[in-house]
Amino acid sequence: MKKLTFTLLFTLMAIVSAQAAKVYLKIGEGRVTAESNLAVWVWIEGGGNLCTNGWPGDKLTEKETIEGADYFVYTVNTEGSYNLLFNNNQSSGTKQTKDIIGITGDCTFVLNNEWDGENWSYTKTEGAPSAETPVVPVETYTVKLAGNAYGTNWDAPVTFAYNAETKEYVYEETETAKLADYFKIDIPETKKWFKRDDLVDKNLSEASSDFVAMNDNSGDMKITDAADYDKITLTVKKEGETWKLKIVGEKKETPVVPVETYTVELRGAKYSWEIGAPAFTYNAETKEYVYEETETAKLADMFKIYVKEGDRWISNANFNGALNNGLDFQDLNEGDVMKITDAADYDKITLTVKNDNGTWKLKIVGVKTDKVQIKGKFNSWTVADMVSNPNGTYTYEVEENMAALSEGFCIIINGVHYAGNTVLDLDGDAVDLQGNPVPGDDLTLIAEGDVASVILTVAKDCDNWTVKAATGKTSSVAGVDAAGVVIAATNGEIVVDGAQSVAVYTAAGALVSTDARTRVAAGLYIVRADNVVKKVIVK
Predict the structure, then answer these.
(1) If 0-12 CB within 10 Å is exposed, 13-18 middle and 19+ buried, where does residue 192 land?
(2) Which of 33, 49, 348, 449 is found 20 to 30 A from 507 (Cα to Cα)?
């Protein structure tokens, strides 16, 4: 019995003597795991577990306030060196520090961020706590930007730079189009992915430019108009237990471009309100932009002028109506759409735009092709179209029933009858036409002699219409020279008599024949017979 008592006393004294080491644990400012559920696992090499409990160890409960800071305190029953680790007091799904080996005596630890990817981070100081015991600051977090544009599998993220003064993490993205695809913020120490709800499939202008709390739900961010910016700056900071993100874009500056580099387009209901609308042509001499529309009916529907530089739409309500005689340059603004209600009445409408010291102006001019016709006794008063010529005149050749010209005829212009009880002189001056004449006041002409046809020509001088008559063709005998050369045009033939050499040419100068009798198609020909040159018309 005495021996047993002595043995127990010896063991008790040994235990007491072994209680020389204390472990102090302070929770750092970056810590996010619940402090109420921390444990320590202590062991010695070759001696096994020194904890009261089995894995995951002894829960930390005892606390002391030292130098104004709170510490967990744990007593280690050992005479020599010992090993330990801190964990989340979970037998499975454990998060912990790495093994901390070879500790002797008292030791102070500061447990900081929740997770570095593999283990909790910490700092270790020999001895009991003091005012100099370091606390790992929050800037030890790693903040990364990852997404579809950052590696095939988001495996090439970029890292934010830490600003120690503002305690913020900053990343500047100049390849801004990358942020138009899905992305997130990765903070490995928290083992979480973060996003801002107001940056999901939104334009940057639609989202707040201030700090907004992030969460760790499953969605991703996307800035749909990211490519419109030269630089987008993402700033992350931690406020308490909340991570926040601010995102600011710097827009591309619209360059000041000289007037000749503007892109001016005609956009509208019959064109396109977007890309693909027809562009105006720039006239460097007049510094004007011109567009000619021949499908004029398009302008009877809504349209506007679009200037790409500055993304500007311009119009003028004054152009919402009939064109009449055209409109001179008028100021354009960002008002209602334009519409030319009588546009289809014109054969061509020309729109001219110019920039007058920052004010855009528009002129619209319409061109109507006049329809000029003729009727008279010579064609039984049947309306016939006159020929429109490039010089703006209209002609008609009367070859048969010319005597009937003396019995009256009239000109019809755009449906209006023109005459005026006027007698025309053949090969004389042009005379004015009178619109809407009294019935029976017709034009007359007497053609006599060897005249084979009469050409009537109608012209417009400002708002005044005129008509004149000229000899078209004479008799079939074109001419006889002093040597007795005769050149004649009969039905489908040119006949030359009395000449040693003959050459027949087209009006364009191409040689047709050198025979005295040549069968040709109807038209104008030039005939050289010896030294005689004549023009002949073959019917």
Answers:
(1) middle
(2) 449
